[in-house]
UniProtKB/TrEMBL annotation:
<keyword id="KW-0125">Carotenoid biosynthesis</keyword>
<keyword id="KW-0150">Chloroplast</keyword>
<keyword id="KW-0413">Isomerase</keyword>
<comment type="pathway">
    <text>Carotenoid biosynthesis; lycopene biosynthesis.</text>
</comment>
<keyword id="KW-0520">NAD</keyword>
<dbReference type="InterPro" id="IPR014101">
    <property type="entry name" value="CrtISO"/>
</dbReference>
<dbReference type="InterPro" id="IPR002937">
    <property type="entry name" value="Amino_oxidase"/>
</dbReference>
<keyword id="KW-0285">Flavoprotein</keyword>
<dbReference type="GO" id="GO:0031969">
    <property type="term" value="C:chloroplast membrane"/>
</dbReference>
<feature type="domain" description="Amine oxidase">
    <location>
        <begin position="62"/>
        <end position="333"/>
    </location>
</feature>
<dbReference type="GO" id="GO:0016491">
    <property type="term" value="F:oxidoreductase activity"/>
</dbReference>
<dbReference type="GO" id="GO:0016117">
    <property type="term" value="P:carotenoid biosynthetic process"/>
</dbReference>
<comment type="similarity">
    <text>Belongs to the carotenoid/retinoid oxidoreductase family. CrtISO subfamily.</text>
</comment>
<dbReference type="GO" id="GO:0046608">
    <property type="term" value="F:carotenoid isomerase activity"/>
</dbReference>
<keyword id="KW-0934">Plastid</keyword>
<dbReference type="InterPro" id="IPR036188">
    <property type="entry name" value="FAD/NAD-bd_sf"/>
</dbReference>
<keyword id="KW-0521">NADP</keyword>
Amino acid sequence: MHSIGRFLTYYLPQNAGDIARKFIKDPQLLSFIDAECFIVSTVNALQTPMINASMVLCDRHFGGINYPVGGVGEIAKSLAKGLVDKGSKILYKANVKNIILESGKAVGVKLADGREFYSKTVISNATRWDTFGKLVKVEELPEEEKNFQRIYIKAPSFLSIHMGVKASVLPPDTDCHHFILEDDWSRLEMPYGSIFLSIPTVLDSSLAPDGHHILHIFTTSSIEDWKGLSQKDYEEKKELVADEIIRRLENKLFAGLKGSVVFKEVGTPKTHRRFLARNDGTYGPMPRKIPKGLLGMPFNTTAIDGLYCVGDSCFPGQGVIAVAFSGIMCAHRVAADLGK
């Protein structure tokens, strides 16, 4: 436990890029480390806290890839089942419109249909921009949130393509996960510059009909790129951008990919905003400039009594592992505050 504490204390204010450049001089390897950090944080290694980088590097390169049978949705189902088994109740299609405050304390939530629920604590897993920009109605933003917004801006969202394709288009030794960056490292952080691809049916064929595979393709995209379009122009642009991404995958990986498509759905940052209720569809916070590691990242408590935040807007930041860690920390904090 002491060694973990020393590790966190030492690396908390440091970034992965600074440490990498102390020991590595090869520009190609440094660019690769930038790409590894970008995969989790949407910024290069110089802007990625060392703690976050260590999480993603261990996850991606130590012990191989683990994938849940039945797809990633099974994780959410298992978590929901565990909550219900422990006596919790989950309300679906329950859109929270605002957090109820009484004498400056968070005491419950009000839903879009008018129902109100009261509790000893309120935990928001919305982004901090949504929590303090939409859900909490206060005359002045708490100083902690002003500081957060001074240090961090909203990371871009994604363009996502979900496709069903004929299995014959994929070579038999195809891997599950791919990261495509054609020729030029300088395009790494540009919109649509790099492409993420996952093919879950390589590991679990039950997810698709016989003779088919599922492809999930995504690339960074900003909501500003999709504003001011008519519905017709919006749909046409989705198809144009998706076709260009598919063409690039054809050139690098799977010849004939476009002709093998039997199903395709394209989502934009506006899709992420609508269905995930995330401000501008953002993937999470990213630093305005080179940060001091994670020193500027807020923890789970807030300036409002009884209100806690959890997720990628809290320490230790973006990525599945980091967000899970944030949830564990928040659970311990709430339990301690309730005297449990």
